[in-house]
Design brief:
Length: 154
């Protein structure tokens, strides 16, 4: 029902914001403690504090934490790629690599969906099932505008 969906959204929003608040508190506290103990701030402090906060706050495998970790992972990969170019570990691309990345991401996810579906996150499986399988059967335009699985038959 609409009420249940709204309640679920509110609970997820609360859990997300609560986890971020806990993480910030732990991270900033550990940064300050390490700097105080060593008399100065060291780059490794950030990594250690974040690892500790990540373990304590986001270590439980649940839908909220999973979404946050997947979001961060994609940003990390982009950031590490840029850092590798900046530091000269890999050459500056002559042309924008994004079209190739887009092709490889879509090729990989659809291959996984078709042949190793169980390896994908359940919400992604559900979305892809709706887009690539449920859409094979339709009755009229309302199937694509509303929802294409009908319980009543015309």
């Amino acid at each position: 029902s609409l009420r249940e969906k709204l309640k679920s959204i509110a609970q997820a929003t609360y859990a997300h914001s609560r986890n971020l608040a806990y993480f910030v508190f732990i991270y900033k506290g550990l940064l300050a403690a390490q700097a105080w103990l060593q008399g100065k701030k060291i780059p490794f402090h950030s990594f250690l504090a974040a690892c500790t906060g990540g373990w304590l706050v986001f270590g439980e495998n649940n839908p909220i934490n999973s979404q946050i970790i997947m979001y961060l992972l994609s940003r990390i990969l982009f950031g590490l790629s840029r850092l590798a170019v900046e530091k000269g570990y890999i050459p500056q691309p002559r042309q924008d690599p994004f079209p190739l990345l887009a092709a490889l991401v879509w090729g990989t996810v659809l291959w996984l969906f078709e042949y190793h579906r169980d390896t994908l996150q359940p919400s992604l499986q559900s979305s892809m099932t709706y887009l690539y399988e449920d859409s094979d059967v339709w009755h009229d335009l309302s199937d694509f505008l509303l929802y294409n699985k009908r319980t009543d038959s015309k």
